[in-house]
Amino acid sequence: MKFQSLCIAFFVSSILLAQEHSHTSSRAINFPDVPGYRTLKTDLHQHTVFSDGNVWPTIRVMEALRDNLDVISLTEHIEYQPHKADIPHPDRNRSFELALKEAKDHDLLIVHGSEITRQAPMGHSNAIFIKDANQLLHD
Fold it and tell me: What is residue 89's predicted lDDT score, i.e. its pLDDT?
C-alpha cells in the first residue's frame, strides 16, 4: 500500500497505562489512517530500569505490542540512574540494544533516544534519532 505522505500521531501514555501489566485487559490503541496518509501510533518517551523506570526494556517492547503501537523510543535519562546499585551498566545505549533485539521479529520500530538534563539552562530534553547516547553524556 503506497501513501504519498506519512502522518505520525504522537501518543504519550499516562503513568497508569505504562504501569499496568495485566495481560487480561484490552489495551490496543487504534487511530484511523487519514486519506492519503498513514497514521503511526508512537510513544517517544519511555523509561526502563536503566534510568528511572521500573521494568526491563523487553517489557516496554511487549507493552508496545500489546498497545498496538508502531514506534517507541526508550529515552533513558543520561545523567540520572537511580537503579545504578542494582543495574550498573556504563553503556547508555544498552536499553536500546535490548529493545531492538526483542522487537526484531515484530512489526515495531525502535527509535534510539535519550533524555538529557542540564543545569544551565535548566531543563529536560528528549533527543530522538540519535546514534550514540554515550556521546550525549560528555557533551
Answer: 87
